[in-house]
Amino acid sequence: MENREFRKIDHYEIRQIVESNSVEIEGYIAKFDSPSELWEGYWEQVDRHAFDDTIADGHNIFLLYHHDWSKPLASTKTGTLILEVDNIGLRFKATINSNLTYGKDAIELIRERLIEGCSFGFYCQEEDIHYNSVDDTVVRTLLKVELYEGSILCIPQYEDTSVDVFTRAREICAEERNRILQEKELVELKTDLELIKLENELL
Predict the structure, then answer these.
(1) For site-directed labelling of 145, which of 32, 51, 56, 94 has its Cα 20 to 30 A away?
(2) Distance CA 142, CA 124 (A)
(3) Is residue 24 part of a domain?
(4) Domain-embedded: residue 48
(5) SS3 185
(6) Residue 137 resides in a domain
(7) Nearest to residue 168, comparing CAs of 106, 121, 109?
């Protein structure tokens, strides 16, 4: 089962790093205490401490293009992805190699404002669910999550929703969690092999 949550993201910043053929982008993967209605009567929000443990434990977290593990843009292990919790939400700064075809595509789409959203893939570890009998609504608060990846996405804009551009949070069930961990390990192995190859070439 996947729960997807839209989050409004409007803080993309982009800078060219000429000498290294890289581009830096900044934005928010998630925003805190910002309830989003997933369907009528069901709301969900992220607690401001939800990411504390998953950021502190030091495991590798990726920035992907469209949740695609074959298209990694940056990672915390390589130092190309920096995650920071502030009073607004989980902020990221990523250094993207513009020599990558899909990386160049992502950068151009951001510049053209065809990409205006971020999303995150997570496994919920703790939650609080509150039912309000007065207005017949449910509010689910994510208290603690295990974060695997953030993604930048193209979000379709329709005329009646163009003022509010939202992104989805992608919740991972136990079965999918195992599959994603395997994909993540393969990406990390490929990255390590490429680094070893580069080191050998420099010898």
Answers:
(1) 94
(2) 7
(3) yes
(4) no
(5) helix
(6) no
(7) 121
Q: Which two tokens stand for residue 182?
A: 């395997």
- Answer whether 89's CB lies under 8 Å from 28's CB: yes
- The model's pLDDT over 82-128, given as tens digits with 9 standing for 90+, comes to 999 999 889 889 998 888 899 888 888 888 877 777 788 888 899 99
Q: How far apart are CA 181 and CA 83, in angstroms?
A: 20
- In the numeric block, the tokens 């570890």 are attached to 125
Q: Is 136 inside a domain boundary?
A: no
Type of residue found at 109: L
pLDDT tens sequence across 162-195: 223 334 455 656 666 677 778 778 887 877 777 6
How high is the pLDDT of residue 168? 47
Helix (H) or strand (E) holding 186: helix 174-202
What's this model's pTM, rounded to 2 decimal places? 0.72
Nearest Cα neighbor of 66 from 2, 146, 150 is 150
Which range marks the domain in which residue 14 is found?
4-35+57-124+145-202
Here the tokens at position 177 are 């969690």
- In the chain, the number of structural domains is 1
Give the CB-side neighbour count of residue 189, counting CA atoms within 13 A. Answer: 6
191 three-class SS: helix
In angstroms, rounded to a whole number, what is the distance separating the alpha carbons of residues 78 and 188?
10
